[in-house]
Amino acid sequence: MPTNYESILADFEKREKRAREANVRREREIRGTYADIISRREEGGAFKLAGLADIERTKTQAIGAGTQQMISSGLFGTTTAASIPVQAEQAAGVQRLKLEDILEQRTTEAKLGLAGFVERIEDPYPDYSMLMQAYIAQASQPSKAATGSGGGRGGRISPRFGSYAGGRDIISGGSGLPTNYNPLQDPTRHAPIKR
Amino acid sequence: MAVSISDKVSYKRLVTAGNDNIFYEDIDVAVGTQIELAPATNDIDTTDQLTMVSAFQKVFIANGANLKIADFINIKLIHTALGTPHAKGDILTQDTTNKIIVDFTNTAKTATYGYVTAGTWDVTNAVTGSGSGSGFTPTGINGRLTHTALTTVHAADDTITQASTSATMVVEYTDVAKTHTWGRITGGTFNTTNSCTGDGAGTAFTPTATNTKPPLWYNWTVYPDGTSGTMPEKAYLVFVYRGRVGLAGNPEYPNQWYMPAVANPFNWLYGTDDPMSAVAGNNADAGQCPDIVRSTISFHDDYMIFGGASTTWLLRGDPVAGGSLDNLSDTTGMFGANSYCFDDNRNLYFWGSGGIYKIESNFSNIRNLTEMVLPDIINDEAADPSTHRITMGYDKKRHGIVVAITLLADGSNSNYFYSFKTKGFYPESYPDECGPYSLFYYDANDTTYADLLVGCKDGYIRKYLNTAKDDDVGGSDDAISSYVTYPITALGDIDFNGKLNELVFDLAGGAAGGDAGDTDGVSWELHTGKDAETVLEKIIDGDTAFTSGTLSGTGRKNKIRPRMRGAYVGLKLFNSTASETFAINRVLYSVKEAGKVR
After folding, report:
1. Residue A79 and residue B278: Cβ atoms within 8 Å?
2. pLDDT at A126
3. In this predicted complex, what is the ipTM?
């Protein structure tokens, strides 16, 4: 009936909005997680600060141990003893470079992960054919609960929006839709997000 | 099958310093013959302290600001200043077959010193290196021509030409004897057949010998590669320890010692992260002021002793790699650079703050040998490092230590021979001309020359000769005055006089002639007194003896009846006659008691 089109559309839009908002929230949460991971490893981040502090601690201990050994062996008054801090600093420098390298690797991995996440975000077009079919079905006969095999499955929280993770398009999946299928009443389906 | 075996001998050369000259034993001329190293003449100051050490087939010299090397293994290639010097260890190649291992480059980068491993080097072909050093063509190679004494020497920078061979040499030095001309060969090859003429006023000559690898003389400096650190500007002590040719005795930093990199006496860059790197230091506990270093005594690669002004320190191992520095004595120092020696059992003897000391080879004990027998030796000798030199040497032929105390100004000396047999000290003195400035046991290849050598004030090197009865003072001989004072003997019981009835001397030599060495004559004196010190004083002061006589011949002499009464008797035997020595087997005497001492 012509008036049912508007309710179908309203219901469709309401579901679509809910789904989009949920997905945007998930996107933000995931972005935030990645940002946190990256910030910990960037300049001034907690990971780097902790690493540098550990290197300094090791350097201080090396200088102390070396100097004590020089004193015990009576060679405190030699250039060998005087060069212990220099050598410790050289060793610390190597460790700092290694730390930088590790941080760089981890940051890159995190950024690549974020990039992949962003890359996999899909902005599908609104599925008007589905809307039309829902209207046609609604207009032709009373609706029945769908029992077809093409219902797809609930998607996991993932960077994919609008399609099923590994799922099938509800229109084409399985053995086809029953003629009385009303997608608006299919609880297993996520509507595509409009951006 | 016939087997031919030829000996391979390592040749030793004696190198000496005196009269601002360096002399070395030229075994090509004759064993034991010392000739002047002309390039070194007047380049050192032997009126100042000078120490030398041999290492890497060179002699390293520390003579204040004169830090020098006499090099007996390398050749010298002269060239224009290199942009980049060849690094130590680089291989230089000339004409594909001539090879040299680079050892040193001078500061101006105009001379490269290296060991020839192949070929005969020339001044014609270009030279390339295995490293990044600049290529060059030598403009000269050091050489030396030997000849009969010239009437007029060739002046420095004169060019000597041997026309028949087209050989040329630019003169640099001629020795005092005018029998050796040193210079850089700039072309051709000299022979010993044809005459040579100079472009100056020098006398023409025909070489009697040519040498294209004469000893070299150059300044001991850091390698000019910009990464070899800095040497001390002055030093008076040089030593070798674990492959490091070290220095000490810098008057600006007298408590400091310096050691270059292992096996590289030209690298003085301290503090690198390398167990072989150069190292400098001083001898003190942490936070304490270090003592002045007066002597540096290394024993093989095992350990090193630093003798300070009032302390003694022991360095074991390498100071850069796991070594240790321990204090041996807080109260005993050493007199000077050469006031020590080792014996055959690795025991160390030295003139210390309180007398003559012995350090056992295992460092279990530092004992003052003169403490009981010569307790006041330090004051008696009153030696001062600024005016005296004390040298010590182990005489393995006579089984003892010679301790020589010489006044530098005039050679007057007071010496001791410490006998290992009797454990006693025998005072002796030599003519001033023979005043010892150095003692050195030379273990020569030719055993004729292997002996304890004495470097004397007059510039001669002398040795102790059992068959000589006089001292050789140069143009003449000096009689030796020798004496022995028997222990002052009590003639009776405590506080009782005795009467010396009979005295019998048994002189060395057995029967006259024969195989046993015969003694020459000997004089004797008897002194008496109520106490022992009075008797000794009479002998020391040369008072008139109670009775005296002279003996001659060998074997048991006739009985002497001195009829001398007293509480104590002193017997002195002596001989001051030229070309005479004496030896006594024993002295017999009989005594009767003769009442209380009043």
Report:
1. yes
2. 64
3. 0.76
